[in-house]
Amino acid sequence: MAAMPNQHREPDLSTVWLRAFLQVAxxxxxTGAARTLGWTQSAVSRQVAALEAALGGGPLFDRLxxxxxxxxxxxxxxxxAETVVEALHGAARQLDEVREVAGGRLRFGAxxxxxxxxxxxxxxxxxxxxxxxxxxxEEGFTPRLxxxxxAGHLDLAVVSTTGGAPLDAYELHHLLDESLxxxxxxxxxxxxxxxxxxxGLLADADWISGSPRxxxxxxxxxxxxxxxxRIAHVVGEWTAKQGYVAAGLGVTLVPALAAESVxxxxxxxxxxxxxxxxxxxxxxxxxxxxxxxxAQSFVAALREAVSRIPTSLNRPTA
Length: 318
Known about the structure:
Layout: H1 15-27, H2 30-37, H3 41-54, E1 61-63, E2 68-70, H4 72-99, E3 105-110, H5 118-129, E4 134-139, H6 142-150, E5 156-160, E6 170-178, E7 180-185, E8 206-209, H7 220-224, E9 230-234, H8 238-246, E10 252-255, H9 256-259, E11 266-270, E12 279-286, H10 293-308, H11 311-314
Parallel strand pairs: 3-4, 3-5, 8-9
Antiparallel strand pairs: 1-2, 5-12, 6-12, 7-10, 7-11
């Protein structure tokens, strides 16, 4: 019958034992180790004896008339004990950094117009305060960002109520209620209009939108005002939409967060929408996970950034 291979079980060791062992090895005496650790000599002896027993009972030190000397087993153990203790010290340092937002990572996402002003202001403030946090950013529509958040791929998402994505499953931090502007060519008959305009005045216009259907987009505002806009051009990117407007190919809706970057040959008119703000903007966090300290700090930075956006661009028009 073949001999069974030698089975080595992993010893159940205390890090306290390892710390005591290393100090004795470094000082060459129990007395020196006790002085460094702030323990009694007998306490150090008990920790080393417990370690020797857990490792099979063999001595780790030869007891000499003056001090101690590592045995062969003790010399073998030293580098392993140092690795374990240093790894635990490193873990403790990194955990402290995460708790203090001095390190760690933050994965966040935002929809396109939030990236026009809100997110850059917040990101600049956050990076100045926490330069060692590793940042990664994604851009996308709110439904996709929420899916990424739920799946654990993001720590935070800047989302909006456009499209009616369900938000109940998330921890929401309200940032602002965003008003809408309608962008018309500089020479449009309404370009000199004083005050907010009803979208019904543009019911016969050609519209430029990111979707061929108004439902679930900013053009829900037109549906609320009783007409279905005629979408003549489907254009996804905000800068391109402005180019179409400037060329006289139609009009488009611009959310307040993107209004600061509108080109000079396009005129913005505030939209009168008496039923509700065009959309609410939130920082969303997962409910089923403890938020990372970096995510909480970024929410604070987003709130500060809101205050830096001109009030005429972040207040719902009455």
